[in-house]
Amino acid sequence: MTAHIRPDLDFIPAYVPGRSHPGAVKLASNETTIGPLPAASKAIAEAVELANRYPDNQSGELRAALAEFLGVEPANIAVGCGSVALCQELVQITCADPADEVLYAWRSFEAYPIITQVGNATAVTVPLTDEVHDLDALAAAITDRTRLVFVCNPNNPTGTAVGRAELERFLDRVPGGVLVALDEAYYEYLRMTGDHPDGVELARNRPNVVVLRTFSKAYGLAGLRVGYAVGAPEVIEALLKVHIPFSVSRVAQAAAIASLEARPELLDRTETVIAERERMRTALLAAGYRVPVSESNFLWITLGAATIDFAEASAAAGVIIRPFAGEGVRVTAGDPHENDLFLNFASDPETVARFARGA
């Protein structure tokens, strides 16, 4: 006889990471192509020497560094094994009944439906409008069963973002008893001027708003798994209660602290990525593809029914991208030579005739 397993797990899809293929260029996972900052690499090497010791379960030094950096108190900071772990913990602290609702736009981050089901809650989705969050529709979808709302800004996988004024109007409509998670995993790539959305600032006087950020993207620490939440002390205290003990390694904490201290160098690197992102979008638009403005380190190409065929053709040309069947593909901005390989494929007359004209 086999052990009893929750029967509803049969209906929960496993998270599927961007695939890899030996010898192919991988532009599927929104990773940075440059390794950790030099200061972080040094901190990693030093921290490994103490790998026989447990990490600080409270991540006290990292929380203090983040608090100073963001102008908040350590009590406003929680650290997790990547921001996705914090997403799951937010479901755990807000939802206790299968009828409790987790609300988010779709399409958005693929982990949201998975962690909602794992948390035994009910997912409620609101369609994007032209690949952008429809915050009016999202606000209208809130019910007395809504416990948590995810707003991914910039949105993964479309790369689009909403501005500060629009976010403020939305947050003002959300009942105080509903927790809003502003998922800002790609915050460092935002370059909106005049209406720049900064979740930490928006959350300062809103105790029902928590902000999620990560060291996986712009900081180049995806393999170490460290993210953080910024919110009201009551929310942070609850997150600490469901935190898996010692899940943020000593190495990850040391690398994150060093990366914060080297932030000016980080900003120089993000400018390089943004320049490549804009160069790629300009070329794709010129070829006839539909590509919304991106505020992340990737681009979204709307392809509809041709999505899978386009992704397979790209793989055959040596570039792995991320398809979302029936909708479009997500393409990471990588090194210039990697991006050129993809652009050569995408702008080839045969490819354009097959895919761009019908997009």
Automatic annotation (TrEMBL):
Molecular function terms, GO-annotated: aromatic-amino-acid transaminase activity; histidinol-phosphate transaminase activity; pyridoxal phosphate binding
The protein's role, per its UniProt record: Aminotransferase that catalyzes the conversion of aromatic amino acids and 2-oxoglutarate into corresponding aromatic oxo acids and L-glutamate.
Catalysed reaction, written as an equation: an aromatic L-alpha-amino acid + 2-oxoglutarate = an aromatic oxo-acid + L-glutamate
Domain named Aminotransferase class I/classII large: residues: 25-340
Keyword Transferase: yes
Similarity-based family: Belongs to the class-II pyridoxal-phosphate-dependent aminotransferase family.
The protein's name: Aromatic amino acid aminotransferase
Keywords (A to Z) from UniProt: Aminotransferase, Pyridoxal phosphate, Transferase
Description of how the protein assembles with itself and partners: Homodimer.
Classification via Pfam families: Aminotran_1_2
EC code: 2.6.1.57
This protein's record includes keyword Transferase: yes
SUPFAM superfamilies given in the database record: PLP-dependent transferases
Protein encoded by which gene: pat
N6-(pyridoxal phosphate)lysine: modified positions: K217
Cofactor(s) this protein requires: pyridoxal 5'-phosphate
The organism of origin for this protein: Nocardia jinanensis
One Gene Ontology term from the biological process aspect of the record: L-histidine biosynthetic process
Name of the top EC class for this enzyme: transferase
